[in-house]
């Protein structure tokens, strides 16, 4: 754990003591002063310096005074945890849970075990654990020990952390479309996130993803676009009749964990007839036509995963800028892999105000 900044801690301690002296004359104002004092632990830090070190310094400054109001302080800290950009840091949650006093809130008799002992404190602890769960932070044995030392072995908050330690590792890799290890702990660029999103949305294992970087005169303009297409989709483009209308629609949105990625779709009208997915087979004892039926079924065309009921997906793509000009460059690059696009009518429909029709 990073050691808190001593200078920031002294600043917060001095500010908190002056705030309490200011509102000590009137009882109602003193209560309001305490609320301001708790929030000032985090508001006093300038936005450029809001990081893990200053957040831990605010927690240490609160613990050194040994005041009451642990619940109010933790609830206030949870409001600022995303502003500091540390909502995925396990050490921060450990520091917040360590604010609770140890041993005082452990049930000592059967009556206290039956009813919810120290309900506000336990509900506050559950809020911290819920925040960890929502942000995908997996607890370890130390978090479990901190909660047990504060609330006992089988209390309301302790059951929550036990369930988290049991289920979260099991459900961590439950998404078969996304490998979290490629995203967690990595600062991916928009182009890399687009590649992960296209791979996540492509059910065909033969899909190849290509990334093209554009060269501009301005070095700060890092242009790029990506497209995902399989061999089956290229065969579908070859089988389309001449002057068939093909549409490029978007942008649509998909989330790669907490990151939003915009993508586009190239599609055409359905290329296969409506087929009942649930075929009703009747068993017949007459086996004289068994071989001919098997032979006809062997050469029967099977609908691919790209041929949906209302449209056929021909390609997926992502661009650094969502406009028709960038989509035209994306289309030109895609035509190099699919020469048959030159005999099709491609319509770009990215801008709803302007319907741009292009004959590629």
**Strand line-up of the largest beta sheet:** 1-2-5-4-3-6-7
- Would you report the number of β strands? 7
Radius of gyration: 30 Å
Overall mean pLDDT stands at 81
Largest sheet: 7 strands, mixed
Judged by helices, strands and strand pairing, the structural class is: alpha+beta
Distance N to C terminus: 58 Å
Low-confidence stretches: 1-36, 353-360
Helix percent reads: 40-55%
Shape field: elongated
β content, as a range? 5-15%
SSE string: HHHHHHHHHHEEHEEHEHEE
- Please tally the helical runs, counting DSSP H or I stretches of 4 or more residues: 13
GO biological process, one term: innate immune response
Protein name: Evolutionarily conserved signaling intermediate in Toll pathway, mitochondrial
Organism: Parelaphostrongylus tenuis (Meningeal worm)
InterPro entries: ECIST_C (IPR029342), ECSIT (IPR010418), ECSIT_N (IPR046448), TPR-like_helical_dom_sf (IPR011990)
Give an overview of the whole structure.
The protein has about 350 residues and is α+β, with helices and mostly antiparallel strands. The chain contains 13 helices and 7 strands. The protein has helices spanning about 5-20, 25-45, 50-65, 70-80, 90-95, 110-115, 120-135, 140-150, 155-170, 190-200, 230-240, 290-300, 325-335, and strands at about 210-215, 225-230, 245-255, 260-270, 310-320, 345-350, 355-360. A 7-stranded mixed beta sheet has the order 1-2-5-4-3-6-7. Strand 6 and strand 7 (about 355-360) form a beta hairpin. Helix 4 packs parallel to helix 7. The two termini are about 60 Å apart. Pfam families: ECSIT_C, ECSIT_N. InterPro entries: ECIST_C, ECSIT, ECSIT_N, TPR-like_helical_dom_sf. It comes from Parelaphostrongylus tenuis. It is found in: Cytoplasm; Mitochondrion; Nucleus. Keywords: Cytoplasm, Immunity, Innate immunity, Mitochondrion, Nucleus, Transit peptide.
